[in-house]
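Field reference: "sequence" (input) and "structure" (output). Example, ABC transporter:
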Amino acid sequence: MTYSVELRGVTKRYPGGGGEPVVALDAVDFAVEPGEFVAVVGPSGSGKSTLLNVLGLLDDPTEGQRLLGGTDVTSLSVAERTAARKESIGFVFQDFHLLPTLSAVENVALPTAFDPGDATDRAADLLDRFGLGDRLDHDPSELSGGQKQRVAIARALINDPAVLLADEPTGNLDTETGEAILAEFERVRAEGVAVIAVTHDPLVEEYADRVVELTDGVLVGGVVDKGRDRGGDEGVDAAERDDTGRDDAERNDAERDDTGRDDAERNDAERDVTEDRRPVTPSEER
């Protein structure tokens, strides 16, 4: 299977004070399949924003390889990087990043490569899909937090991206609204889009197919073994069940043997004790 996005041994360094570089990402391996929802967690300053920037072609790795849909996009010109990002990647931000002077439908249509007429129609269709068909001409100031985030998601999907990157998508939302937004992510994921969300919200982790942890630039669980797909897992589980069955049978046999030996030894011991306690007859004394 071709991954939607993949990092191979990616390291990202920034200039630091005293001539020592700051390592934001350290030999990171990371891959996400089409239709997979991955949550990235970790403490502040662990490199999560840098990871999103590298995945989103906003920043280049210092070392390693970056692939988008199986194509190496590690070293691109600014124009090539912009074109690839516009075609294949959508962004959703914690603070929505909607332009206050544009309506909802205009904000959604903003990044599109379509002509103005087609862009507006597609933007309207997306907003209607997200339950905002009656809010097309509303400015951001007239929308709730959840509605603004839906507009932001629609904008991220306007160019049919293969990858959706979200930075704390529920950070400014209450629990109920956050669940509604994550349900939209579920729908997007079901359509084959790879969704990657950086988060501190346990609710996002609950919705994700996989949770990976980034600490001091080191990513844990970034790549899943392709051999352990659903069928592979079932095969492993079956083998583990067979081993467990054999272990149980062997343990039961051993316990029966031990019990038999213990019973025999106990009977012998009881006979010895009984004989020791049996009264001695005069003939035996002689």
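Residues 74 and 83 are 14 Å apart (CA to CA).
The chain has two domains: 5-224, 233-285.
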